[in-house]
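Exercise: predict the fold of this chain.
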Amino acid sequence: KKILVTGSSGFIGKNLDESLRSRFNIIPVHRKDIMNKNHSIFNDIYAVIHCGGLAHTKDKELTNFYKANFLYTKKLINLCVKTNMKHFIFLSTINIDFSTKNNLIDKKNFPYAYTKKKTEDLLLNLKNKKFKLYILRLPLVYGNGVKGNLKSLINIVKKNVPLPFKQIQSRKTILSISNLISFIVLILESKIKKKLIYISDK
């Protein structure tokens, strides 16, 4: 079964590629394939796992998030609806829940969550789609090769410097990359039916 994976050079995409390659025909999709409407790559696809987008960056410019997360997905889905694929898996973020107030997201302060939610709405409102849509709202994903804030924290811990965390009661919901991949396999095997899904470790 031919499966397209966007963002295959990122942490999640790279792990997906390496883990699923023995079971599926994994084809990395690059931004130029989408922007140049490379139709040949979409021939006979079984599923798309959409990991690509802009997330961990010091750049807070809304326009860049809008292009990378919303417009990129819109162009991708326009190519997908013309195929006979079975599954479209969109990796979203639990940050949407924490950034929403009175059903609105402050796009200036939370551009990542805002553009992910806008993309979710686009996908959920698609008409006449033949495929099953899955939106996974993910917490912090960890594992070998992790990037972003968790990598920074790990680097600090490795320095054996005493950390001022004793009085902090904050807890994080997390998800191992292996559990995420196992769940995506269940979707590809048509064992999951829900559209909007929250997933985490225990």
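Check your answer against the key: The chain is about 40% helix and 20% strand.
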